[in-house]
Amino acid sequence: MYSEWASLQATIENESNYKSVLHSYSAGVGRDVAVSVVRQLADRLSINAASKHDPLPSNLETEKQIEWTMEVICFGLSLPLIENETIRDCVNIYVEWLTALTVPKPSVPPCIVNDPNPYVQKIFRHFVNLFKPRDRGDSSKQIVLCHRVLRTVQTTAKQSGKFTRQTWEILLQFLLTVNETILSPPIVAGSLSEQLCDRLLSVLFELWLLACTRCFPSPSLWRTFREYCVAWRHHTALVEQWNRVNQVLTSHLLKILYGPNFPELKINEEDALIVPTDMDNACIAQTWFRFLHILSNPVDLCKPKVVSQTPMFIQAAFNSEEVIDPNQHPCLSALPKNFLLAMRGIANLSDAFIGEADRGVPGDMNSQNKTPPPTSKASKINHSTSVYHKPSKSVTPSPQLTPTPEGANLTQLLQMEKRSQCNSLLHLFGAWLFEGAVSGCKFHSVKHGEGSIGGSKPRRVHFAVSSSESPHGRLAKERHSIATPDSHRMSGRRAAQAAEIRKASEILPSDITAILSPYKRHDISESPNNYEAGRAEACGALCRIFSNYNQGESILPVYLSRFYLTLSQGLKIDETVSGLVMSSILYNSQDLFRIDLKGVSLVLPHFISALEMVLPEKELKFKSIVSQQQLRQASIHLLLSMLCIPHHFNTLSMMDLMTGKPMRTSGMFGENEKVMTFRSLKLEIVNLMIGALQCELDPVNTQMLLGAIHLCILDSSLCEDIEAKEEQKKKEDSHKDLGTTILEEVMEKQNNQSENTTNKVFLTHQRSSSEPIVDLKPLTSDTSWRIFVRCTHLVCQRLMSVWSTSEYKYYNVSLAALELLSGLARINTCVEDQLECKRAVRWICEHIVHLCSKPSPQHSKILHSIIVAAFQCLTVWIVNHEYLLKDKECLHCVLEVIELGISGSKSRPKGCVPPVYKHEKELKPASMRVKDAAESVLACLLNHVGSFPSPMGPSSVVSLLDEESILKLVKEKSSNVTFKYFVLENNTLLAILEHPVAEEKHPLPTATILLRGLMGRHAWVVQQRHWPKSEKEAAQERLKYPARPQPMDNVGTHHEITSRNFPEMVDKIQLTNADRSIPTMSNIETEQSKTDHEALKVLLEKQIKYEECVKSSAEDELANVAFPNPRTEAKPPRPKQEFSPARLLLSHLGFLTLGTLKEPANSSVPPSLVMLDSTQPGFETDLELLDSIPCRTFDTGFVFYVKSGQRTPNEILANVLSSATVPPHFLEFLNNLGWPVDIATHAGWSGHISTSWKMEDSEIIGSSFGNIDAYVDHGGSLYNGQHQVLYYADSTSEMAFVVPSQRVHSLDRSHSVEALDQPSGKQNLSPYGSKSLPLYQNPQQRPLTLDLPVENTAPAQISPSLDKKRKLSTRAGMIGGSHMKVLVVCLECLADADTFPISELLTETSTGLEYLQGSSSSSLRSGRTNDQVAIIFIQPLKSGLYRIQLQGSALNTNPLVDGMVVSRRSLGTLVRQTCINICNRKRLECDMHCPPHVKRRQKIQEMVNKYRRRLTSPQFYTHLFMD
């Protein structure tokens, strides 16, 4: 910089300028003269006259007198310290004479007052003698005088305006001289340098800054200043003053370059005063640049040999018997600290230029647990300005929502966009930072062709540096790759990215040599480990600079190459591993893999190796610059950004950083060498993720890892599905022999069955307790199923053993774990062993049992929220894996935990305790929330398991028919055709229609019922049959008379047999006296009785003859009648045409017993069967309100697309009007969120209550919704909620995604809600009644029946027989949403997230619930709090991946994590699931939230109280039989 200017070193060091004439005489002569002259002058000074007399004027009148006197004083200042009084008087005289430049005192000679500058210049030269070290005497008195002189000189320079340019130059030369005199020699204990170093340097730097304002120093002075500073670098104070001045000047320079709104570099109030206020901008810039380079190369501070190569060090080595080499001087032990301070100062400056200056004073190296300061929102990416103070990017309990930037905030963000680019910062600081970052690294030349990995370290990439075998055993494992070459998949953007990586890695060995040449000046022996702190600062600064890379910015390839080389050295794992450097790189590189940095994938293996030293370890085995929790969190952020890279680049080869050739892996002895691909890194990343979760205790880090697991399994499953389809397509296209193919498939199937059988047997007997057993061995397969099994075991084990120990600490973690298990249940992965899924369900049940069994004092709202979430997770598992309930043990486990949730205890306790039956059990649930959640699982199990989605599709889980629709199908039009309403068990409303809806040839007891239960409304047709309906022929035969069998001619031989009452031997028995005790008739007969007996006998004879005659005639008649006789033939009765189906149905259900009609004693609960009076006014309205309560939760997400630089709502809303204004991947992302549905024919939630649960006919559609042809070429505006929305639903929730556009903005979605309050001409029953089943449009195409078509794959048609348009009659029952505003914002530039107009766009997110809650439209702008708005920002990267940034309530929810990088194929699924989880979390936290099935039950109970017929049992039966 100053090579063309001469140095003033020779002039300054010329001692003749500082000697007096008296130095030519003997010491005694000079001393006597100085003592006598100075004493007389000192008596006339103001400082001495204050105590004796008034100050006397000076007696020196001429210039000769003054010059002679100054020669004497000059000699007096050089006297030994034993003449302290004389030296003090000399200082006092000169100090008072310096007042000639400000306010002269009386003792100042008139000549000096008239022309002070020549005399002041001599005074400055003479003061040099005072600062010269003395061998004898008390140095403390000399130090006091030196301090006084420095203070006086500094004050005089600041206050005086009479300094000429020559005076300023002499003053600066004086300061350089005294500093050189004291600071150049090595530091010795007790020397002047220890006492005066700080003051000397502060005065020098401050007065130099003042001189730059008053009289800018010449280049020669600047060169001399720089040369002297190089000789003083062994003083820590020099580096501190250098940092101090640089920070102050930089704070002024930033305001000049970027304006006052740029983030300010905060400095101390005292330091801010060292820069004069009148220094102009040009002077500040020139001064800043010169001071920046005043130490020459700060990296030399880590090189003792370079620092000690000064004349003073060499002379001290010659004069010392202990010091052999100058670089062995003890004072050089301060160099590591100096190097650290220098690198930290440079890092602070670079951070200030990238807008990261809002921080505190850097902490000490040993301070690792300090709370990081809050970060500024001005920056696009959160970075630390020092590696010791990094604002955590973790999930916070109460996230702060960034308001819309207005005024100064918006101006500040605009200024931030103009901040320095990476190239500019690297031009300024790159040379120092790059060299400092690799200081101590020993390089060797790279031979052409190197690039393979083998031998003793097959797992390490080639660093081109000397290294030895790693002591870590797991680092020597061979890279496992199961990737199948699939090059045809890499096309388009991926191919371009591959070419970019190859281009970045194509560096010739000669280029590498050129890059390494600046770093070959010293080896590791010159830089011991105590310089690691400085290296860590340099590496951290470089990482933050490159992490602030912006889109559209270009970085020179040489900088990228040096940066990647620096990273490879800092992350090197060998005997020279540096924990401080590694932790600094990991801590400050969180955004490195998510900013589209060119060729960054080259260092991916190095980062994976470093992460293996951090994540799987419970305790760090090296020293870190930050706490273990912060380092692990940064490492997890890195892991989140690299999860999708292996599958994304798949079989693309990894390129060696040094040779530019593909990396190769081999075994321990060089066998099986193969090319390393990105896919081969997946297994290591998965093992890292699992190992990190096994030992992670921090809740924030744990929640991030749970999100990573969800992403990993989902992405792997999707990739496997794609690969399986491609493989199947290849098989179909191949021309193999059919028999061979079939044989292979059969053999493969048999092998799989045998493996599954073996696995089942092993997995059945390996557990002896209920707690999951986790295999701690690394995975050997990276398939989605293997990862699923291992992660399920691990998450369940941690959930039951660790995360359930403290609900308050691990609340979010427990919820995230349950959300993860729910998400895994939804993933469509290939289930190789159903036993693993059964185990997962059992562990969830055991977790619920464990939480419910806790003592009462530990029960809290948080605990019950976790139990409710666990029940919701259990619901997802049994619905998505219905085969689990076919297992008896699994079903029993689920039913037991449901019973526990409802009643508070199990009927079958463990041990020998006898079971407690339902009617004997006292209901004591943990809480009503837990009871409601358990009832929801039971209702879902009975209604949806195995039957979801229904034939109507997932948009509706209830019947779309109501009473009015059914009555239109009844042939008999009569006023007597009505429904009978009953309530069963106080929670089910049963409507029974006893008239058939269709004519049948053979009428049967038929009842059409509408069952309104906890899970919605269902329509059924029940018939009493003796034969199954499928056996129609048998049913018809049953209604015919059974034919008598034909007579048989051969009836066999007829035998005449005389019947006897007693055997024949009875007649031979002689009678006894007892037998004769009963007299005969003749013995007791009288005359009168004899006459009567004879008359009776005659009558009997006549009767016998008559009967014989009749018998004979009858036999003759029967002989002449054909067989069979129609008169005597037995015939069945005629089938009955009239029935009482309601009575039969209730009787079969067991509700017509006396016990069901009797009210319980001492209870307000109604009987099990209650009849309702439907004729009372208001019954239909209440029935409509009951149907208006949805049986599933419903939520809405709003999707926006923001182009780079857009900040107004109109610009953002106009983006989606045309496909030309949005990229194709945005439309693909929309289609992945859900399937498009037409609002007019949609049966579910549509994002707004005015259009939800309604179906319109074609005429109304055309008149109300306009022309849909205007949306043919749309960019997403078709889904603005006017014609279509994107819809997703499962058995328990509905989700609608709306893309607001200017067309909706002009219509104002909120106005349509006001129609809800307007009375309609006809009172309808429910919104469900406005929908129809997929009936034929023409009723003549099929008979009128409630039977669904067996095979009907055509789209649903609208039935004209149903009422299509209905309005809600009241607000009650509809308030059931989560009240969350979930925004999904796709950005082209992530910096636009800070300027996204949230408050303005909230008016476009109306769902109608705001008006049902009494909110006004204006409250949408300002009434939203932080916990009511969640924003998911999505930025597409050039690599084809997507970066996620969360804001508001989304920070606490999985599976998406702030900073995660996801693939294109999994983006839609993850965003949708995150939106659902956000709303579910909000419902869990809301005390006023009531589940849908509970609302329905409450409404049914309300109707019972209002419309119940209070009848006695006889009256009830009479009504049932007579009506």
Topology (SSEs and partners):
Elements: H1 9-12, H2 27-43, H3 46-52, H4 63-76, H5 84-97, H6 110-114, H7 116-126, H8 139-159, H9 165-183, H10 192-214, H11 219-231, H12 236-258, H13 269-272, H14 281-292, H15 304-307, H16 311-319, H17 335-353, H18 408-416, H19 422-437, H20 493-505, H21 509-516, H22 532-547, H23 557-570, H24 579-588, H25 604-611, H26 628-642, H27 645-649, E1 664-665, E2 674-675, H28 682-695, H29 699-733, H30 738-765, H31 784-801, H32 811-826, H33 834-852, H34 861-880, H35 888-903, H36 928-943, H37 963-967, E3 979-984, E4 988-993, E5 1006-1013, E6 1016-1023, H38 1032-1038, H39 1081-1084, H40 1087-1120, H41 1141-1148, H42 1154-1157, E7 1169-1172, H43 1179-1188, E8 1193-1202, H44 1209-1214, H45 1224-1233, E9 1235-1238, H46 1258-1264, E10 1284-1289, E11 1293-1298, H47 1302-1307, E12 1381-1387, H48 1398-1401, H49 1409-1412, H50 1419-1422, E13 1429-1436, E14 1442-1448, E15 1461-1462, H51 1464-1485, H52 1492-1507, H53 1513-1522
Parallel strand pairs: 8-11, 8-12, 12-13
Antiparallel strand pairs: 1-2, 3-4, 3-7, 4-5, 5-6, 9-10, 10-11, 13-14, 14-15
Helix pairs in contact: 2-4, 2-5, 5-8, 7-9, 8-10, 9-10, 9-11, 10-12, 12-14, 12-17, 17-19, 17-22, 19-22, 19-23, 22-23, 22-24, 24-26, 25-26, 26-29, 28-29, 28-31, 29-31, 29-32, 31-32, 31-33, 32-34, 33-34, 33-35, 34-36, 35-36, 43-52, 45-51
What do you see in this structure?
Helix content is 44%, strand content 6%. It is built from 53 helices and 15 strands. The strands form three sheets. The protein has an eight-stranded mixed sheet with strand order 9-10-11-8-12-13-14-15. A five-stranded antiparallel sheet has the order 6-5-4-3-7. Strands 1-2 form a two-stranded antiparallel sheet. It is mostly helical and 1523 residues long. The termini are far apart. Helix 33 (834-852) packs parallel to helix 35 (888-903) and helix 34 (861-880) packs parallel to helix 36. The longest helix is centred in the middle third of the chain and has 35 residues, at 699-733. The relative contact order is 0.06. A hairpin with a 2-residue loop joins strand 5 and strand 6 (1016-1023).
